[in-house]
Amino acid sequence: MTMNRKWQAKAALAGLAAALTLAGCASNGGANQSEEKAVGEAKANDAPAAAAETSAKAEPFTLQVAVWDEKLKETVQQTFEIYKKDHPEADFKLTVTPVKEYYTKLQTALIGGSGPDLFMMNGPNFNKFASLKLLTDLQPLVEQEQLDTSAYPEGITKLYQYEGHQYGLPYYLGSIGLFYNKALFDAAKVPYPDETWTWETLRANAAKLTDKSQSTYGYIAANDNQSGVYPLIHQAGGSVISADGKKSGLDAPESVAALQFMKELIDEGVSPSAQQQLETAPIQLFGSGKAAMVPGGSYDASTLYGMLGDKLGVAPLPAGKQAGFLVHGSSWVINAKSEHQQEAWEFVKVLSGAPGAELLAKNAINFPAYKDAVALWMQSIPSLDMNAFVKSLEHTAPYPVSKNTAEWQNAIIEEITNGLLGKQSIPDAAAKAASRMNDILAKE
Amino acid sequence: MREIQIRAPEAAPAAAPRAARRTPRGRTVEMWWAYAFVLPAFIVLGVFHLLPAAASLAISFTDWDGLSEIHFAGWDNYAVLLSDDNFGKAGLHTFLYALAVVPISVGLATLVAVLLNAGLKGQAFYRTVYFIPVVTMSTAVGLIWKWLYNSEYGPINAALGFLHLPQPNWLSDSRYTLVSIMIVGIWAAIGHHMIILLAGLQGIPQSFYEAASIDGAGKLRTFFRITLPLLSPSLFFVVTTSVISSLQLFDLVFVMTGGNPALLSSARSVVFNVYEEGFVLFRMGTASAQAVVLFAVILLLTVVQLKLQKRWVHY
Q1: What are the tens digits of pLDDT across the range B262-299?
Q2: Is B241 an 8 Å CB contact of chain A?
Q3: For residues A126 and A131, what is the distance between their CA atoms, to the nearest angstrom?
Q4: pLDDT averaged over chain A?
Q5: How does this protein lie in the membrane (chain B) (predicted)?
């Protein structure tokens, strides 16, 4: 909202400037737009001839961009510089809002008819935003320009389709792997994890790596949907949501088995308790050397490398009945009410296309959705072999979403947390989570 | 509050020669001037407080989701509240919070104010220390306390461990979550109360104490018979505002639970519920209904306090 106020302030300033410079003829200047145009013309007149040539329609404009990740700031700024080469009249304002408030703030602003011109979007919130008609339908643009969407993994492209239309262009995806601390493995003389590991190997080695006197743990059964709970459910052969998106899969015996596995590791003391995880996030615990292994996303790689340096390694997640996880990716979308539809679309194409993906890769931010940039990303942290993230993608299933994903995700977190805390049995937790989720799904 | 009366002679000394002209018309002109001066404040109050309040009262009778068409919903939103588990919980937590925070913070603030007023060395220093939480953003307060409370790495449990005392999981054990938030609430409120009470104490004429000591009254007796009754107007103000602000508990819950649904179920407050209902789930109707109920409760409690004050406040 502040961002919007700033925007308004800027518009007002621009208007004021126009009114001042063109005081003679601007006596009837009512609409903001005409005043901004006036400023544009005034500038174009002053500008050197070279710039004037390119600015046949060069009205200065500002693109408001919103993301939830502080790490992205520089990368998006650099990508904008590339975009600016073709649009010298463009200006840009990036707002970073912590993810906890990001969607709340965004939805409030968009519903009020304001908000950023383009912004990042995730799977759990996409369907709601698209169904509320807050996003621009990109399908006509994609078809008209024959944009090649096969440059992205199919699952991620599909995640941002609503009623068969493309609404977002994929930016990065969250591949999940098993991070491990080489120093702790060396000290316990345990071989590093690899793709042969199963749940049983994990359990046995986690016990060897646990040192209660040092209060270090072998593994963290992370109470986190994307990196902890969903992958285990998938590996056990269960599902979070049925294929038609109408029913919860949490009460299926396979899903219960996955939660039971987490609870057992906690009870055996090889994993920090759910209580400890509520106070200190799993990635934080692992990064400060308190655990030998943690499941985490490709988006955690650069943070963890910053904390552990050369001690950091990553392997594919251990397999249960099957290997893999539910893959999620984020995309760029456009505000349906933005006044700069065409300009925003041009910038989205740069961000999600080769130039943006290459910067994303070089800066080691996250696994680029643009396939051709993946190789570049893999070299971005020289001492860390990130091959596991790429190989694991072969065994993935789509991320579970429906219209009100965020709402039922909260119900799942609450019930599973209470189960892991021991406030209710695991089968009860699964049953309650499933029934609350089904109630929400029934209302969609 | 006292009414402010504007009288002609005081209003404009320069116009003294014309002071005699107290015609009804002159009075009206002055009235208009008075309104003109009040207007800017009134506009701000109107636009940012009165209008939204009226709007949410209206919205509470609709099914508005912030986007689609508005339909009249009658008393439906209020009926839903009766069976809403979360709202019941939130009401209970908020009530318990106020019940603990108001008396304890006012009690401790009185104690601190009396001690400071007694001419303690370094009075200015302590006054500043106690007042710091008041001028600190509550989000920052919440974040720092979250770290202090960390059961494994926080200094509170480190100290308790050193003394071989039990080390509870302050925030993540649902039995203590609300209590932990209350402690922060009390800590943060003391400074505000203390400053007002200190001002009240300094308004008590020294002669009362001299008379009391000549009559041979002890320290405790002087406190209960002289200090407390003469401090009662300040205490009344502090209690009333403190009740209102405790019932509006939000930031500490928001920050200290980190929005985790499992922790929230043992700490959600009414205003948090309003926020969640309105700006996370976009059910503006029920959110407004909850806000209206809270408003009614606060209004009622304040009226009751205004009535009761006649029995214990000495002006």
Answers
A1: 889 899 999 999 999 988 888 899 999 999 999 999 99
A2: no
A3: 8
A4: 87
A5: Multi-pass membrane protein
* Residue B76 identity (one-letter amino acid): D
Q: Which of B34, B6, B66 is nearest to B282 (CA)?
A: B66
Name residues 244-303 of chain A within 8 A of B (Cβ). Answer: 275-276, 278-280
> Tell me, what's the ipTM?
0.74
pLDDT at site A16: 39
The CA–CA distances, whole Å, from A45 to A17, A57, A85, B43, B265 equal: 15, 13, 20, 43, 62
Task: Judge whether A214 is closer than 8 Å to chain B, CB to CB.
Answer: no
Q: Which residues of A345-360 are buried (b: 16+ CB within 10 A; e: fewer)?
A: bbbbbbbbbebbbbbb
Domain count, chain A: 3
Per-residue model confidence as pLDDT tens digits over A157-199 = 999 999 999 999 999 999 999 999 999 999 999 999 999 999 9
Mean pLDDT taken over chain B: 88
Distinct helix (H) and strand (E) counts, chain A: 21, 11
When pLDDT is cut at 50, 70 and 90, the band that residue B21 belongs to is low
CA nearest neighbour of B258 among B168, B176, B142: B142
Which of A196, A230, A203 minimizes the C-alpha distance to A217?
Answer: A203
Asked if B55 is an interface residue toward chain A (Cβ–Cβ < 8 A), one would say no
Please list the ranges in chain A whose pLDDT falls under 50. 1-55
Residue with tokens 């030998």: A292
Residues in B closer than 8 angstroms to A100, CB to CB, are 258-259
Between B85-117 and B177-202, two packed helices, what is the crossing angle to 10 degrees?
40
In order of their start, the domains of chain B are 8-59 (no CATH), 78-312 (1.10.3720.10)
CA–CA distance, A111 with A135 (Å, rounded to integer): 11
Q: Does A34 touch chain B (CB under 8 A)?
A: no
* pLDDT computed for residue A13 by the predictor: 42
Whether A338 contacts A118, CB under 8 Å:
yes
Residue A134 CB neighbours (<10 A):
21
* B174–A278 C-beta distance less than 8 A: no
CB A231 within 8 A of CB A295: yes
* Same domain, yes or no: A221 and A346: no
Kindly state the percentage of chain B with pLDDT values over 70. Answer: 92
Are the C-beta atoms of A155 and A432 separated by less than 8 Å? no
Residues of the domain holding A88: 2-10+56-174+330-375
Tokens linked to B42: 């009134």
Report pLDDT for A214: 85
- Phi-psi region at B119: left, alpha or beta (left = phi > 0; alpha = psi -120 to 50): left
Is residue A137 domain-shared with residue A75, that is, in the same domain? yes
At A256-271, the pLDDT tens digits run: 999 999 999 999 999 9
pLDDT in tens, B137-171: 989 999 999 999 998 889 999 999 999 999 898 99
Task: Give the pTM.
Answer: 0.79
The answer to the question of residue A403 being in a domain is yes
**Residue of A106, A279, A280 for testing the chain B interface, max B β-carbons within 10 Å:** A279
Contact state of A100 with B258 under an 8 Å Cβ cutoff? yes
Q: Are residues A62 and A157 in the same domain?
A: yes
A370 and A415 share one domain: no
Query: E strands of A257-311, at which residues?
Result: 293-297
List the single range of A222-236, A324-338, B24-38, B77-91 with lowest mean pLDDT.
B24-38
User: By the CB < 8 Å criterion, does A100 face chain B?
Assistant: yes
Q: How far is B183 from chain A (nearest CA, A)?
A: 18
* Beta-bridge mates of residue A295: A178
